[in-house]
Design brief:
Length: about 1300
């Protein structure tokens, strides 16, 4: 390389000298030669301890080459350093070649003349461990100049492993300092690079690579300027590590130069970057890489003068002090700008202070944390602007902002971030100047022990606007958003876009005086001791808009107050558990401000809404949701002007729904919702008003009484008003009640209620006036005026069987014009001849009802309206007999029996009050007791079971065609016999199963059962029946050709008449005689079978009677007996294995039933005894056939016939109700004609066993009976 030095008149090339100094003598000779050369005309150079590693020309140039290896370590003899001193007007050059290493006790160069110093280091400069630099200074490299430029360039490293600094530069004169050190700078025990100048010096410009100075108290880059005009610029392109401060830049108090520090790498030190400008220049610090401070501040600027301060940084972390601070103590207009582009954390996050009037700007694009103090503190005399993109957190406050005290600037806090406080507020802003305050943040803010967002303004302050996200301050008594000003002209605007939770009020906005307005909007939920408190002591307006729900635990939900201006509240749901939900006040008696309250959600508090206007302005309350007063009224409105209340929801109060006072003004109430007391009782107060005029229009529902005081009152009821059982006072005068909806005077069917309308000048019914509540006896009494029932209007009342009716009564006149009287007699009406009073007019009645509707008539009674001078009546007339509603024989008979009852009887009057003929017919059918004659039908029909059993046994005994082959018991025979191959014992003294046609004395038994029904004939209902039992008998031959027997048995019959809710059972005990004979006639056999029987019946019945207004359960136990005589004649013939017998059968049946009286209620029947006779004839054919199946003998048999009944085929019973005449009821008829069908077979399944099966049926047009009999006979 070639370096150029400068003499007084020319430039010459530096000649590289390579000298090997082998002895002390040679070194001394070299010193002498160089010294003489310098004296002869170039620069003066003194280096009593110079090393041979560096070569000096005859000028002012020093070059350290790559062969420098001598004395690389600390020798035992003289110090091994290299110090070069020049006193020259020319530039002194020092060059360390690439690859060269200068080590030992340091390297120094100085020019005490007027010339500059230029150092180029592309090699390595180092001080060995344990060495103390002695080469013209205490650093590994020392550069000094008396009065000219100092420059340093190169990529070489500078390392001091001994004591002292790595790199020291001092400008003692007029020159500037320009350092561009791209190599690493390292000091083991001292600072990395130290730069100084004097008051006369110029600028300092230092650019470095990595710098390391880890010893305690040492600086990485220490640049301090005493210049009065020069600038200080430091650029650290590498990482800086230091035991004390990473980068220090300082300008003395006499200077006007600027400080500009840029750290492009990371900084890890006790203090990160410190810039101290004690003069009036500007200060700029940029830290692009992360800054970590372990001892004190991460990055700080202290400006004593009037210059601007600017800090731009990435991430900053300080464990022992503030993360970032910028302090301006001057009184000028200098500004403070702090921008953080990474996360910042320290004992305090960011401190920005300006004692002058210049603006403070803090832009935090990352999170900011103050671990022991505040997150951000901005304190200035002028405008202050804070912008946050992340969360700002402080152990005390998230943000403390103070400004405006010395200037006119505005204060603003904006951004998407939020603030978190610990022991103090999340945000605390104090404005001491006339500027505005603006807070517009969308992030969440909270504090553990302090308030949420607190803003204060002085008497000179400007407008305050606060827009936030969610705010939380849950400590007792702490306010979520707290804005207060003493300004006489400022407006306060608060918009909470997130939920607000607080231990004290959620939002507080206050003006102490003046004409400013207060405007609060809560778009999120509020959960606090009090919801929103907004007020002004001045003349401005107060507006509160709450979209989200408000929950207040101890105070009011919304409190909005003004001393003279308008008050407006628009809110959603509000719930205050211990105070008024919404309180609106204008407290200036001469103020003209209005009050407007609109609720769009449900509102609940001890009082729901309280609006008070002490001035002349109007009050308007619009309740679109429910309003509830848990201890007092739902809505209270008190004013001296117009009071306008509109209700679309439900208004409920513990004392009353509405209390309205209008003074000399008018009260207007329009309700499409509901108004009522908290109890919900119609007798409790719902509305109370007091005004010169009052107009209430109800299109919804009012439950409770009304109390109107003052002048003219108009109550226009277009909806539903229920004041039943209470007293409503209309205040007299020209008071009017116009009912176009429904006015209710009855609630409970069990209580007769009296409803009073006092001091009512005029009642006009154009809608429905109802006392109908299913209980008669309610009264509406009007006093103080007249009543009118207009065309199309309705009065609805109840009447009852006791002769009571609901009634409207007025102390004045009553006029009826085209009105309708609707009558509810669902509980029945009284007996004929009863008169109900339904309307009374003390001063006279004019007109009549145009129509009667409702339950006016029963099936037998009719209501008609009649009138006299003062009353309207309803009279009861019987216009029809019971039998007029009956259709069937039994209905007519029963109706006649009921008609004979005393008219005062309960059953008689229940029938009178049946609404329709259909109900009456159903009642007649249920009361008829037809189960009893229908039971006779069943017993007579089942009498065939005994006839058939006796006849079949005689036929079997003679082996007649179609008879069963089942064996019987007889004394033994020693032979086989019978078609089925009967086997008998060989012992004649024992009994055994023998063939059914044995001629010995025979015993037999059989079980039987049947089920069937008799259908309705249009009079009596269908009967279903079933019978099961057994018979046993014995017979023997007499007179050679005759056979005579006796039988006995038991059965049980059950019957059910479902359509009459009736059922019964009979235990039947049977006894009978039977006999028969045969004659051979021609080629066949003529057979005669005959018999008689008697059955004793024990009968039990039960039935239920249920129809409108009546219910009874009835039972009866009685006896009956059935006697019958029967006979059958048949002629049997055979054709091979087949046999046929045409036959004719005749039976006479007599049934006698005892009289009885049912147990039960009013429907109890007494029945006389009855006798029913019936004759049955049957013509038919018996047939049978014998054949074998394998080796088994079998018999197939059957009967087909036609039965006809004569005599009393419709059983009758004669009944009477208690106190009434008798009547006759018919049961279901006995089938007159029917088909008889029996089919069966017997088969000898073994030589000693016979299986038999028989099916029997009887089928008529409305009747059917069927039976199945199976038997297995085994002979032993």
């Amino acid at each position: 390389m070639r370096l150029y030095g400068f003499s007084a008149d020319k430039a010459y090339p530096l000649v590289s000298l390579r000298a090997q100094l082998l002895s002390q003598a040679s070194r001394s000779a070299l010193r002498f030669a160089i010294g003489m050369a310098g004296f002869a005309g170039s620069a003066v150079f003194f280096s009593p301890q110079a090393q041979a590693a560096c070569t000096v020309t005859l000028g002012t140039d020093v070059q350290c080459g790559t062969t420098s290896t001598v004395n690389a370590v600390n020798p035992a003899a003289p110090p091994n350093d290299r110090g070069y001193s020049f006193s020259s007007p020319f530039t002194a050059h020092l060059a360390i070649d690439a690859g060269a290493t200068v080590s030992g006790f340091g390297l120094a160069i100085e020019n005490t003349g007027n010339g500059a110093v230029m150092v180029v280091n592309n090699g390595t400069i180092s001080v060995d461990a344990g060495n103390t630099p002695t080469a013209g200074g205490t650093a590994a490299l020392n550069i000094d100049a008396a009065s000219n430029l100092i420059t340093y360039t190169g990529s070489g490293a500078i390392t001091n492993n001994g004591s002292g600094d790595a790199f020291a530069i001092k400008q003692n004169g007029l020159g500037s300092i320009d350092v561009d050190a791209t190599g690493d700078i390292t000091a083991a025990a001292g600072s990395g690079i130290v730069v100084r100048n004097t008051a006369a010096s110029g600028s300092i410009d230092v650019t470095t690579g990595a710098v390391t100075a880890l010893a305690a108290g040492m600086f990485g880059i220490d640049v301090q300027s005493s210049s009065t005009a020069g600038n200080l610029t430091t650029v650290a392109n590498g990482d800086v590590t230091a035991g004390n401060t990473g980068i220090l830049g300082r300008v003395s108090s006499t200077g006007t130069g600027n400080i500009d520090i840029t750290a492009n790498g990371a900084i890890d030190a006790g203090n990160g970057i410190i810039a101290q400008n004690l003069g009036n220049g500007s200060t700029t610090v940029k830290a692009m890489g992360p800054v970590t401070a372990t001892m004190a501040s991460g990055l700080g600027v202290f400006a004593q003068g009037r210059g601007d301060v600017s800090i731009t940084t990435g991430a900053v972390t300080s464990t022992g002090g503030q993360a970032v601070y910028a302090i301006g103590t001057g009184t000028g207009t200098g500004t403070i700008d702090v921008t953080t582009n990474g996360n910042v954390s320290g004992t305090a996050g960011i401190l920005a202070g300006n004692s002058g009037t210049g603006m403070i700007s803090v832009i935090a694009n990352g999170a900011v944390t103050g671990t022991s103090f505040d997150g951000i503190v901005a304190n200035g005399g002028g405008a202050v602007d804070v912008q946050v993109a992340g969360t700002v957190m402080g152990a005390r406050s998230g943000l403390t902002l103070i400004g405006g005290g010395g200037g006119t600037g505005n204060l603003s806090v904006t951004g998407a971030g939020g603030f978190v406080g610990g022991s103090d507020d999340a945000v605390n802003i104090q404005n001491y100047g006339p500027g505005t305050v603006t807070v517009d943040i969308s992030g969440a803010s909270s504090s553990t022990s302090g308030g949420g967002i607190v803003v204060r303004d002085t008497a000179t302050g400007g407008n305050i606007g606060v827009t936030t996200g969610a705010v939380t301050a849950l400590a007792a008594g702490r306010i979520g958003i707290d804005v207060e000003t003493l300004s006489a002209t400022a407006n306060v605007t608060i918009v909470a876009n997130g939920d607000v939770k607080a231990g004290g009020p959620g939002i507080f906005a206050g003006l102490s005086s003046g004409s400013g307005n207060v405007d609060v909007t809560a778009n999120g939920a509020i959960d606090a001791s009090s919801g929103i408190v907004a007020g002004t002591v001045g003349t401005g307006s107060v507006t509160v808009k709450a979209v989200g729900p408000i929950t207040a635990t101890t105070g009011r939900g919304i409190d909005a107050e003004s001393s003279a201006g308008n008050v407006a509240v628009i809110t959603g749901a509000v719930n205050a558990t211990a105070a008024t939900a919404i309180f609106a006040l204008q407290d200036n008696p001469v103020g003209a401000g209005t009050i407007n309250v609109t609720t769009n959600g449900n509102v609940s508090g001890t009082t729901g809404i309280q609006a008070t206007n002490l001035g002349t302005g109007a009050i308007t309350v619009i309740a679109n949701g429910a309003v509830t007063g848990t201890s007092a009224e739902g809505i209270v409105a008190t004013g001296n002007g117009v009071v306008d209340v509109q209700v679309a929801g439900t208004v409920t109060g513990a004392t009353r729904g509405l209390t309205l006072t209008g003074g000399t003004g008018a009260i207007n109430v329009a309700s499409s919702g509901a108004i009522r007391s908290l109890s919900g009782l119609s007798s409790d107060a719902a509305i109370e008003t007091n005004a010169a005029t009052m107009a209430l229009t109800n299109a919804g529902s009012i439950v409770g009484t009304a109390q109107f005081a003052g002048g003219a009152t108009l109550f226009a009821n277009d909806g539903n008003w229920n004041g039943a059982g209470g007293t409503s006072d209309f205040g007299g005068g020209a008071s009017r009640l116009v009912n176009d909806g429904t006015a209710v005077g009855g609630n409970s069917a069990g209580v007769a209620e009296t409803t009073q309308w006092t001091n009512l000048f005029q009642f006009t019914n154009q809608g429905t006036l109802t006392m109908a509540d299913a209980g008669a006896g309610d009264v509406i009494r009007q006093t103080g005026g007249n009543a009118a029932f207009a065309t199309g209007s309705i009065m609805a009342i109840d009447i009852n069987t006791a002769g009571q009716a609901d009634r409207f009564s007025t102390s004045g006149t009553a006029t009826i014009t085209g009105a309708t009287l609707t009558v509810n007699a669902a509980g029945g009406i009284a007996v004929p001849g009863t008169r109900y009073t339904v309307l009374t007019a003390d001063a006279g009645l004019t007109g009549q009802f145009a129509a009667l509707t409702g339950v006016l008539n029963t099936a037998f009674l009719r209501l008609v309206d009649t009138y006299d001078t003062n009353n309207a009546y309803l009279d009861i007339l019987k216009y029809r007999n019971f039998t007029d509603a009956a259709l069937t024989r039994n209905q007519i008979a029963t109706a006649g029996g009921l008609e004979s009852l005393p008219t005062s009887g309960s059953l008689y009057n229940v029938i009178l009050n049946l609404a329709t003929d259909v109900q009456a017919r159903d009642a007649f059918d249920q009361l008829s007791g037809e189960v009893y004659p229908s039971a006779q039908t069943s017993l007579i029909e089942d009498s065939r079971l005994l006839r058939d059993a006796a006849t079949n046994r005689i036929r079997a005994a003679f082996g007649i065609v179609g008879a069963s082959a089942a064996p019987v018991m007889a004394y033994a025979d020693q032979t086989y016999g019978g078609a089925a191959g009967a086997y008998v014992s060989l012992d004649p003294n024992t009994t055994a199963a023998v063939a059914s046609d044995t001629d010995r004395f025979a015993l037999w038994s059989q079980g039987f059962g049947s089920w069937g029904h008799t259908g309705s004939d249009g009079n009596a209902a269908r009967v279903d029946r079933s019978t099961g039992g057994f018979l046993a008998g014995g017979d023997a031959a007499i007179f050679d050709t005759w056979r005579l027997g006796i039988m006995a048995g038991y059965s049980r019959t059950n019957l059910d008449v479902k359509d009459r809710a009736s059922s019964g059972s009979s235990d039947n005990y049977h006894l009978g005689l039977y006999g028969g004979t045969t004659w051979d006639v021609g080629g066949g056999t003529l057979g005669l079978r005959t018999g008689t029987s008697y059955t004793w019946h024990d009968i039990a019945t039960s039935r239920s009677v249920t129809f409108p207004g009546f219910n009874d359960s009835l039972k009866a136990d009685y006896r009956a007996g059935t006697a019958q005589v029967f006979g059958e004649l048949g002629y049997g013939i055979h054709a091979g294995n087949l046999g046929f017998e045409p036959f004719a059968n005749l039976a006479y049946v007599n049934l006698r039933t005892d009289g009885f009286t049912e147990t039960g209620g009013a429907a109890t029947l007494t029945s006389a005894s009855a006798i029913t006779d019936a004759i049955f004839t049957t013509l038919g054919l018996h047939a049978s056939g014998e054949f074998t199946v394998g080796e088994m003998a079998a018999t197939v048999r059957g009967t087909l016939g036609w039965r006809h009944a004569f005599g009393e085929t419709v059983p009758l019973s004669r009944f009477a109700f208690a106190g009434g005449a008798s009547f006759t009821v018919a049961g279901v008829p006995i089938a007159k004609d029917g088909l008889i069908l029996d089919v069966g077979f017997d088969i000898a399944i073994a030589h000693n066993a016979t299986l038999g099966l028989t099916y029997g049926g009887q089928f008529g047009s409305r009747a059917a009976d069927q039976s199945v009999k199976a038997n297995l006979a085994v002979r032993f």
